[in-house]
UniProtKB/TrEMBL annotation:
Name recorded for this polypeptide: histidine kinase
Residues of the Histidine kinase domain: 20-225
Residue window of the full protein shown: 476 to 701 of 701
Source domain of life: Bacteria
Length: 226
């Protein structure tokens, strides 16, 4: 089944976002404060094993912050006529090694003479990175992530296709919700950022998934004619 998702309404709910950010940051902060309290009250406590947990909590805050900064930073954006082929090859080269460590090959297949899209290059890279990373993380036994780009119905489509665990239907509806993650070390911000960026590009994201077989995420862009 194909789910066309338009999460733009959700993204405009700034209050909801602020609340969830506050929540996500407060939990690790509370635990950090607890440990420091413990050390202050009992100076002989063997701190070694607590430092490890404290370090993990700090890393989590750091990770959430760096993803948020990408969203919040008032970036000087420059929308340019952008060639999809070079974007795809840049990102696949970037993630190639990271994928190989997990026995995953990233394969690209970009149609010749594909029209350009109007885009902010760094943001489009960010979307592709988010999607390919999700594909990699969905394949615990290795496999292939295929990145395809082609023209269809007057649109440029870029697909990220994995052979991973797939996404249950009820979960597809929640993708793009801030902090929705099923991963122990996930932030649940990747899809939200991707929806936001695609919306700014007058584009769209659709998701097709089969449990146990894999997932196809399709980005659609209007063709850019000079
Ligand atoms: P994160 O990757 O940090 O968990 P995302 O916003 O990127 O956050 O993804 C949210 C959730 O969507 C993931 O935790 C996962 O459950 C699900 N998901 C996204 N992409 C895929 C995929 N290709 N295959 C399976 N599940 C996925
Ligand atoms: Mg992700």
């Amino acid at each position: 089944t194909e789910e066309m998702l338009r999460k733009s309404d959700k993204l405009s709910i700034v209050g909801q976002l602020a609340a969830s950010i506050a929540h996500e940051i407060r939990n690790p902060l509370t635990s950090l404060k607890g440990f420091i309290q413990l050390f202050l009250e009992n100076r002989d406590v063997d701190a070694g094993r607590y430092y490890l947990i404290m370090h993990d909590e700090l890393s989590r805050i750091e990770h959430i912050m760096s993803e948020l900064l990408l969203l919040a930073k008032p970036q000087v954006k420059s929308y340019k006529s952008t060639e999809v082929k070079s974007l795809v090859s840049f990102v696949s080269t970037l993630l190639e090694r990271h994928a190989l460590v997990q026995n995953i090959h990233i394969i690209t297949d970009v149609e010749d003479d594909l029209p350009f899209v109007l885009g902010e290059e760094n943001e489009l890279k960010q979307v592709l990175i988010n999607l390919i990373k999700n594909g990699i993380e969905a394949m615990s036994d290795g496999g292939v992530v295929l990145v395809k780009a082609f023209k269809e119905d007057d649109q440029v489509k870029v697909q990220v296709i994995d052979q991973g665990c797939g996404i249950p239907k009820d979960r597809i509806d929640r993708l793009g919700e801030p902090f929705f993650t099923t991963k122990e070390k996930g932030t649940g911000l990747g899809m939200m950022v991707s929806y936001k960026i695609m919306k700014e590009h007058n584009g769209d994201i659709s998701i097709e998934s089969t449990l146990g077989k894999g997932t196809i995420i399709t980005l659609s862009f209007p063709v850019h004619t000079n």
